[in-house]
Design brief:
heterodimer; A: about 400 residues; alpha/beta; Peroxisomal Thiolase, Chain A, domain 1; two-stranded antiparallel ribbon; 12 helices; about 30% helix; globular; B: about 375 residues; 11-stranded mixed sheet; about 35% helix
C-alpha cells in the first residue's frame, strides 16, 4: 500500500505541517521535559491538593505544578486569571519561542470545562453568604473561550477562536478540524490544541460514576479499575506544508489524516462492539489514504475503565493486529479536553525520538484483548506514522494520524 | 461560498415554530417575563422562559427522559429544521449530515444542582445521574441519537457570537465535502444563577423593557430557547459571507471590531439584524452601523425575546432569513429615539440582503450576510 506522500495529492488537499508545539502537563513544562518523562517512564500522578477529596474513592490526579505556570504575562491580574489561562499562556509561550513568526488565521482549541473552578468559587461564596467582591472576575473568567483569548492577547494574536467542547475527544477534534481547515486550502495557518484544569466538580463527577479508581491507572490491564484525572494544555501550530517549507520553518511532523464518528449507544458508555472507535480510526486511515499496516504506533485513548478499554481494544485489535499500543494516561492521568492535544505532542516526540512510550502500571493482559502493549518501559523502535485516539462522553470519537517528516 | 439555509426551527419564549414566532413578532408581541428564583437563595430576578407546554409536544425518546431543558430545546428546534428542510428539498440523509451544537452556558440547571449536592452534602452525595448531563456536548449527543447522526458532531462554546462561529464551521465542513448537510443548533437554558452572575457583572436589569441603543445602556434580561438552521447547497436563502470577526479585550474595543466586521459585510439594500440587547453591545453596534452601514434599517430581537446568549445568533440568522423571505421586519420595541439609527417602518421593503451582527458579552464578535 503506498503511503500518503506517494499519492501526489490524490487525497485532494494540501499537506499539513506541524511547525511548533507547546506543552505543560504533569509530564513537565516543554518538549524536552516531556520527552525526559517519557524516557523515564515517569508516574506523574500525585495526591490531589487543590480541593478536599476525603469523601472520594479516588484521591490522586496528574497535576501541573504551579511554579511551571507563566504568570509574568498577566501583569497585575495574575491572581484574577484562571489557572487554565496560565496553562494556555505557558504552552503558547513555548510555541511562540519556537516560531515567533507564526501568525494564525484561525484558532481551534478543545476543552471540557473552561474556568469551572471559578464557577465553584462563585457558588460556594453565594452559599456561605460571604463576600462576593471577586465575583465579577469569576464571572468574566469562567467562560471556556476566556483562557484562549487571554493567551492570544498575551502574544498579540487576535484570531477568531472556535472552542470545541466534545468532552474527552475535544483536543483531538480540535486538531482534526484545524487539520481539515489547512488541508482544504482555505487556511494557511491554524493554531490548535486543548486545555483543561482540574476542578472539584469534574473530579467528583467522575468519582460519582465510579469511573475513577483509588488504585493505579492501568490501561488495558486485566485488573484495570478506572481512570485517574489529569490536567494541562498543549498547542500545535499547523501550517500549509509548502508555506512552511517556503519560509524555512522547522517542521516537527505532518498530520496526514483525521477521523470522527458519533456513537449513539449511550451518553456515557461506548457500544461494546467498538464500532464507534473503529469508524473513527478507519476514517482517519481513509483520510490519509494509507492502510492499517502503515501505522507503527498507537497512542490509545486508554482511560483504564473496563468498558472503554474493552471497546477501544477490540477495535484496535480488529483493525491493527499487533501494532504497539500504549496509553499516556497511565503516566499523567486523563486531562480531558487537553488529552488529545497532549497525546498528539507525545506522538510527535515518539516520532522524533523513535521511541515507543510506555503504558506503565501494566501487570497482565486482558484475556479478551490480544494487544501489543508497550508494557511499563519505553523502548526504541522505527516509527514513521503514529495514530492518536480520543473518545468521550456523548459518543464522540476522534482519531488523528501523525507522520514523521522524511529525512 | 455556496451555503444555503434549507430549513429552520425556532423555540422561544414566544412559542415554537418559524411562522408562529415571526407572526407574533410582526404583530408587536413580546415575551412575558417570569420571576426566576432559587430554592436556596432568596433574591429573585426576571427572565423570559420557554412555555412548558412546548416541551410537552416533543415526541418521546429515551434520550430525552432525563435530559435537561437545553437538550429538549435543541431537540425541538433541530427536528423542526429537518422537517422544514425535508418539505423543501427532500429527504435529509443522516449519514450525510453533520451536527454543530453551539452553546454558551450549557446545562447550567443540572450543573448547579449537581454542585449544590456536593456543597450541601459532600462528594459522597454527588449524583451520577446528573453529572453526564452537565457536560457541554450532552445536548448534541441526544440530538445526534434522535436523528441518527453517526458522523461528525461538534459542540462549540462561546458567547453570544458562538452561533455565527458555528455557521462558519459548518461552511468549512461542507466545503471539505465531508458532509452534504449540516444542522447548526444554538441553545440556552435560563437559571437563577446565570441571572445572578449577569447581575453582578452589571449587565442585567431588573425588569422589562429592554431599551435598545440607549446611552448609557440600562441592561438586558436573559431568556432561553433554541434556534436551528439546516445548511446545505440548496435552499431559498443564501449565506453570502460569514465573518468570524475576532476578539476584543476590553468593552471599549468592541466598537472597532464590530465596525471592521460591518465594513467587510457592507452591501447596498441590506437590512441589519443587530445583537443589541441593552448593554455595551448596543453602543458598539450603533457606532459601527452609523459609520459602515448608514441608512440601513436596523432590527434587534432582544427587546421582544431577551438575550438568549448561546441561542441568540442563530435566532438572529432566522430573523434575517425571515426578513428576506417576507420582506418585512417586526417593529423594534423601545428604541432610543436619539440613537441616529433607522428602525423598521411600514414601507421598508427594499432590502434583498440582510446582515447579522453579533457582538457577544464575553469578548467575541462575528457577522454574516444573507441574500435571497
Amino acid at each position: 500500500m503506498p503511503r500518503f506522500n506517494d499519492f501526489g495529492g490524490k487525497t485532494g488537499g494540501s499537506r499539513v505541517a506541524i511547525v511548533a508545539a507547546g506543552i505543560v502537563s504533569p509530564f513537565g513544562c516543554g518538549l524536552n521535559e516531556t520527552l525526559g518523562s517519557l524516557r523515564a517512564n515517569k508516574d506523574c500522578v500525585s495526591p490531589v491538593t487543590q480541593f478536599d477529596v476525603t469523601q472520594c474513592r479516588s484521591k490522586a490526579a496528574g497535576q501541573v505544578r504551579d511554579d511551571w505556570l507563566d504568570s509574568t504575562r498577566n501583569g497585575n491580574k495574575s491572581d484574577r486569571v484562571h489557572r487554565a489561562t496560565k496553562m494556555m499562556i505557558t504552552a503558547l509561550d513555548q510555541l511562540c519561542r519556537q516560531d515567533s513568526t507564526f501568525k494564525p488565521e484561525l484558532t481551534v482549541i478543545g476543552t471540557t470545562s473552561g474556568g469551572m473552578s471559578f464557577g465553584q468559587d462563585y457558588y460556594r461564596a453565594l452559599h456561605r453568604h460571604s463576600e462576593l467582591r471577586h465575583s465579577p472576575a469569576w464571572v468574566a473568567n469562567y467562560p471556556p473561550q476566556k483562557p484562549v483569548i487571554d493567551a492570544q492577547t498575551a502574544f498579540e494574536i487576535s484570531t477568531p477562536c472556535q472552542i470545541i467542547a466534545n468532552a474527552c475527544a475535544s483536543g483531538t477534534n480540535a486538531i482534526g478540524h484545524a487539520f481539515e481547515c489547512v488541508r482544504s486550502g482555505k487556511y494557511q495557518r491554524v493554531l490548535t490544541g486543548g486545555y483543561d484544569a482540574i476542578s472539584e466538580l469534574v473530579f467528583v463527577g467522575f468519582d460519582s460514576l465510579q469511573a475513577s479508581t483509588p488504585e493505579k491507572c492501568r490501561p488495558f490491564d486485566r485488573e484495570r479499575s478506572g481512570m485517574v484525572l489529569g490536567e494541562g494544555a498543549a498547542v500545535l501550530a499547523l501550517e500549509n506544508f509548502e508555506s512552511a517549507r517556503g519560509r524555512k520553518a522547522q517542521i516537527l511532523g505532518e498530520i496526514i489524516g483525521y477521523g470522527i464518528s458519533t456513537d449513539n449507544h449511550h451518553l456515557t458508555q461506548p457500544d461494546p462492539s467498538g464500532s464507534g472507535p473503529r469508524r473513527a480510526m478507519e476514517q482517519a486511515l481513509k483520510s490519509a489514504a494509507i492502510s492499517a499496516d502503515n501505522v507503527d504506533y498507537i497512542n490509545a485513548h486508554g482511560t483504564a475503565t473496563v468498558f472503554n478499554d474493552a471497546a477501544e481494544g477490540k477495535a484496535i485489535q480488529e483493525l491493527f493486529g499487533n501494532v504497539p499500543v500504549s496509553s499516556s494516561k497511565s503516566m499523567i492521568g486523563h486531562s480531558l479536553g487537553a488529552a488529545g492535544a497532549i497525546e498528539a505532542v507525545v506522538c510527535l516526540l515518539a516520532l522524533h525520538a523513535q521511541l515507543l512510550p510506555a503504558n506503565i502500571n501494566f501487570r497482565s493482559s486482558d484475556a479478551g484483548l490480544n494487544l501489543n502493549i508497550v508494557a511499563n518501559a519505553a523502548r526504541p523502535a522505527k516509527i514513521d506514522i503514529a495514530l492518536s485516539n480520543s473518545f468521550g462522553f456523548g459518543g464522540t470519537n476522534a482519531s488523528i494520524l501523525i507522520q514523521k517528516l522524511a529525512a | 461560498m455556496n451555503l444555503r439555509v434549507a430549513g429552520m426551527g425556532w423555540v422561544t419564549p414566544l412559542g415554537r415554530g418559524i411562522d408562529l414566532v415571526w407572526d407574533r413578532l410582526v404583530d408587536g408581541q413580546e415575551a412575558i417575563p417570569e420571576a426566576i428564583s432559587d430554592a436556596v437563595f432568596k433574591k429573585s430576578y426576571c427572565a423570559f422562559r420557554v412555555p412548558a407546554e412546548i416541551l410537552a409536544q416533543l415526541p418521546p425518546h429515551p434520550r430525552l427522559r432525563r435530559a435537561s431543558a437545553i437538550s429538549k430545546f435543541a431537540a425541538a428546534a433541530g427536528l423542526d429544521a429537518i422537517a422544514q428542510a425535508e418539505a423543501a428539498i427532500g429527504k435529509i440523509d443522516p449519514d450525510r449530515t453533520a451536527l454543530i451544537f453551539a452553546a454558551s452556558n450549557g446545562g447550567v440547571v443540572y450543573t448547579k444542582r449537581f454542585y449544590q449536592g456536593i456543597v450541601e452534602s459532600g462528594a459522597e452525595a454527588a449524583s451520577p445521574l446528573l453529572f453526564p448531563e452537565t457536560v457541554f456536548n450532552a445536548p448534541a449527543s441526544h440530538l445526534a441519537a434522535i436523528l441518527g447522526i453517526a458522523g461528525a458532531s461538534y459542540t462549540i462554546v462561546g458567547d453570544g457570537a458562538v452561533g455565527l462561529l458555528a455557521v462558519k464551521m459548518a461552511n468549512d465542513l461542507l466545503e471539505n465535502e465531508s458532509a452534504e448537510f449540516c444542522l447548526v443548533v444554538g441553545a440556552e437554558e435560563a437559571d437563577w444563577i446565570l441571572c445572578d452572575a449577569y447581575h453582578k457583572w452589571r449587565l442585567l436589569r431588573k425588569e422589562p423593557p429592554i431599551q435598545l441603543f440607549r446611552d448609557p445602556p440600562r441592561g438586558t434580561i436573559l431568556s432561553e430557547g433554541a434556534g436551528a438552521v439546516l445548511l446545505s447547497h440548496e435552499g431559498a436563502v443564501k449565506i453570502e459571507a460569514v465573518d468570524s470577526g475576532g476578539n476584543f479585550s476590553r468593552r471599549r474595543e468592541a466598537s472597532e471590531i464590530v465596525r471592521s466586521i460591518a465594513h467587510r459585510l457592507a452591501a447596498d439594500d441590506a437590512c441589519v439584524i443587530a445583537s443589541a440587547n441593552g448593554t455595551f453591545v448596543d453602543l458598539a453596534e450603533r457606532d459601527a452601523i452609523k459609520k459602515e452601514l448608514p441608512g440601513a434599517t436596523v432590527y434587534s430581537l432582544k427587546s421582544a425575546l431577551g438575550e438568549s446568549v448561546g441561542a441568540s445568533a442563530i435566532w438572529d440568522v432566522i430573523a434575517a432569513a425571515q426578513a428576506l423571505k417576507t420582506r418585512h421586519l417586526p417593529p423594534v420595541r423601545y428604541p432610543h429615539s436619539s440613537s441616529g439609527l433607522n428602525f423598521p417602518g411600514l414601507d421598508d421593503l427594499a432590502w434583498r440582503k440582510a446582515i447579522v451582527l453579533s457582538c457577544g458579552l464575553n469578548q467575541q464578535a462575528a457577522g454574516l450576510r444573507l441574500s435571497i
